[in-house]
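Two folds, back to back.
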Amino acid sequence: MESIEAQTLVWNPPVWREILRWPLPYQGPGDRLLLKSVALLGRGHVGAVRGLEHMRPGVDPFILVANHASRREAMLLPAMLMLHRGGRLIHFLADWNFRLIPGVGFFYRRAGTITVTRKPARPRFLNLLKPLFTDPMPALERAREHLLAGRPVGIFPEGTVNRDPSRLLGGRTGAARLSLETGVKVIPIGIRFPQRTENALGPMEIDIGAPLQPPTLSEAGVASVKDVRLWHGVLMTEIARLSGKSWKPRKGEAA
C-alpha cells in the first residue's frame, strides 16, 4: 500500500483489506476503528479523489470549502479526507440535525465537528432537543479558535443541500471572513456526480483545488463587508469551476 506522501494525483478508494490496514497514527484504537468503518461503508459512494497533494501534512491550518449536493457528503467527505491525513482531524461545521441521527451523531462527536444550531429541526418536536447541542460561543468563533491553534476547519458555504445539478447557491460568507481575518488559506473542493440519473446521484468524485491565499487587509484583523463579498466571490467561483456548476455573484461580489 502506498504511503500518504506517495499518493498520486488521482486516488480511487482502496479495497476493504487496504482500508483495514490503513495507518492512522493520529487516532487512538477506538477512533481508528470508527473512521475505518465509515470509510468501508462509504467506499461505493466515492468514485475518485483528485488533488490530494494540496492537503499533504504540513499545510495546516486551512479552511476547506466545498459545494453541498447531498446529505452523505457531510459524513463521507470528512471521513475520506481524514483517512488520507492519517487520522488528522478537519473540524467541519455541520447542522445540529445530523447529530440526531444514530451513528452519525457519534461520528461527529468523535471527529470534533463544530455544531451549528441555526436551523430548526423537522419534525418540529425535535427542537426540544436543540439546547443539548447549543454552544454559548458562535460556531464561527469556535472555528476561528481552531484556526488560530493551527487546526483546519471545513465549511459548506451553500449552507444547505443544493440538489440543482448545474448551479450553486449564493452561499454564506463566513468562510471568506474567517480566511481574511486570520490570514489562513482556503482549499476549494468541487463535488461532482458524473453518473447522475433522474433517480440516483451515483458515486461522487471529489476535486481538490490549489490553496487560495487571502488578500492582505488594509486594517489587520478587520474585514469590511466589501472585502468579504469580493473574497467570497473568488471562493465560490473556484468551487463552481471544480464542481462543474455555475455561480452568479451578488452585488459587490467578484465575478
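---
second:
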Amino acid sequence: MWTQIAMGFLGLCAGGIVASAAVAFLIGLGIIPRYAGITHTADKILLYEDTMMLGALAGNVFYVFHLPIRFGPWGLGIYGLFSGIFLGCWILALAEMADIFPVIARRLKLKHGIPVIIIAIALGKITGALWFFYKGW
C-alpha cells in the first residue's frame, strides 16, 4: 500500500513538473499574450494562464490515477471538437509568433489566398486525424 502511495505521489510530482514546464514554455514564448491580442481579450491573460495550469494538473491526475471520464460517444465527440479547436488555435498562434506565414508567403510570392491555404491546412489535419482514428492506428 505504501509503495502505491509513494508511486502515486512521485507520478503526480513528475507530471506536475512536466506540465508546468509545458505551460511555462508557452508563456515564455509569449504565445498567451499574442493569443489574447488576436482574440481581443488581453484583460483575461491571467485567466488563460490559470486555466492552462489547472488543465495540465487535472490531466496529470486523470492520467496517473486512471480515472474514467464517462460522457459517452457524444461527449467524446464534443471533447474532441473543442480539443481540436484549442490545439489548432495554439498551433496557429505559435506559427504566427514564429513568423512562418509571412516567410512562406514571401518565398512563394503569394499575394492572395493565404486564408484559403490556412483553411486547407486545417482541413488536411482534420482529414488525417479522422483517417487515423478510423483505421485504429
